[in-house]
Amino acid sequence: MAEGSRAEGSRTAPLAFGQVVIGPPGSGKTTYCHAMREFLARLGRSVAVVNLDPANEALARPCALDIGELVTLPDVMAGLGLGPNGGLLYCMEYLEANADWLRERLRALRGHYLLFDCPGQVELYTHHQALKNVLAQLAKWNFRLAAVHLVDSHYCTDPGKFISVLCTSLATMLHVELPHVNVLSKMDLIEQYGKLAFNLDYYTEVLDLSYLVDHLASDPFFRNFRRLNEKLVEVIEDYSLVSFVPLNVQDKQSMRQVMQAVDKANGYSFGDQEHRSLEALMSAAVGADFHFSSTLAVQENPSFSCDSERLKAFPGRVWTLSGNRQIEPGKAGRARKKEIRSPPS
Ligand SMILES: Nc1nc2c(ncn2[C@@H]2O[C@H](COP(=O)(O)OP(=O)(O)OP(=O)(O)O)[C@@H](O)[C@H]2O)c(=O)[nH]1
Ligand SMILES: [Mg+2]
After folding, report:
1. Which residue of 118, 132, 292, 306 is most buried, as measured by CB atoms within 10 A?
2. Domain membership of residue 213 as a residue range
3. Atom 14, ligand 1: which residue's CA is nearest?
């Protein structure tokens, strides 16, 4: 399409809002999309799920728009002799080349709040260009989207994996270039995943990571990699961008907390009616800090466990920092470090 007519189209197209749901394989993207669709629909929002995952062959739940109508992974693999990973990258490049198809199909969904269910292939979000270009195109067509990056909370149980998750999340934020909400998914399973080395707020707020490096160094295998881990967490702290919202898709409070974080990120503002529906849905007075209450809900569960020795490193329940907001998100990592080490007043 000529650049001129595209620009004209974006001037006249009304604003549309939505979420681009991304993350590693099996992190719960599809489950989240449908749970969020139901949650928002109960508030009176017109929501449509757009399946952008060409590997989703038989859609168990209805989607308003399916990339499978344009291209499917099995066809690409069979036709071009590609494996699943190469095939998926090809599918996204094919989508980018056929952006007009997407635009036409999305036109029919104007007026809806859109949830884009994306493939679970990490390179799409860290360095491959196709999906990023499609998202940039959507922005030109007046879509105001926020990326919702799901990561399985299982990774909190292993400090080494948690550092790699932080690196991936940061790389994704820098690559995708959308307003971004990182989410720790499957919180309902965290107790089954095993003992955490630190309290939950430590992982969601991404507090002083030197504790994580110290903890890793206590493992003989990781001792040799201490310097590498120190440098990695230095990069994460220097950017000071990564933090997580905990999510349990079966819990309304938790869904509300994610919804509010995303609405703030993409600038969606709802009317009185939706606000009243939300209050009715919650059917209880809720404090202002849902983040605190949700992590607290998990932490105060009798079966939730974390290493008590590590807890002692944080005197005076510094975990309430997310509750009383002594630490503002976005503050430099080193400033956070200083604050967390000072004794409580
Ligand atoms: N207990 C629990 N299970 C979940 C949750 N979210 C997803 N699952 C399960 O995790 C598995 C993977 O979920 P999906 O929603 O298919 O994950 P996905 O990210 O879309 O996976 P890909 O599209 O293959 O990348 C399924 O068995 C889900 O039932 C959750 O919040 N709690
Ligand atoms: Mg999926």
Report:
1. 118
2. 3-341
3. 28
Q: Contact 176/128 with Cβ under 8 angstroms?
A: no
Which structure tokens are listed for 32?
A: 């989240």
Q: Where are any strands of DSSP class E within the chain?
A: 16-22, 47-51, 65-66, 113-117, 143-152, 180-185, 245-246
Residues around the ion ligand 2 (C-beta < 5 A): 29-30
The CATH number of residue 160's host domain is 3.40.50.300
Q: Which amino acid is at 344?
A: P
Atom 32 in ligand 1: residue holding the nearest Cα: 186
Q: How many domains does the chain have?
A: 1
Tell me the CA distances in angstroms from 182 to 203, 235, 241, 283, 330, one per residue in order: 12, 18, 10, 27, 14
Counting Cβ atoms within 10 Å, is residue 291 exposed (0-12), middle (13-18) or buried (19+)? Answer: buried
Decide whether any atom of ligand 1 lies within 6 Å of the 57 Cβ. Answer: no
Q: Helices (H), strands (E): how many in the chain? A: 19, 7
Q: In angstroms, rounded to a whole number, what is the distance separating the alpha carbons of residues 175 and 173? A: 6
Question: What is the distance, to the nearest Å, from the Cα of residue 294 to the centroid of all Cα atoms in its chain?
Answer: 16
Per-residue pLDDT tens listing for the chain (345 residues): 444 444 444 456 778 999 999 999 999 999 999 999 999 999 999 999 999 999 987 667 789 999 999 999 999 999 999 999 999 999 999 999 999 999 999 999 989 999 999 999 999 999 999 999 999 999 999 999 999 999 999 999 888 899 999 999 999 999 999 999 999 999 999 888 878 888 888 999 988 899 888 888 888 877 788 889 899 999 999 999 999 999 999 999 999 999 999 999 998 877 667 777 777 777 643 444 444 455 656 665 655 565 545 544 433 333 322 333 333 333 434 434 434 333 333
Residue nearest to atom 21 of ligand 1 (CA): 26
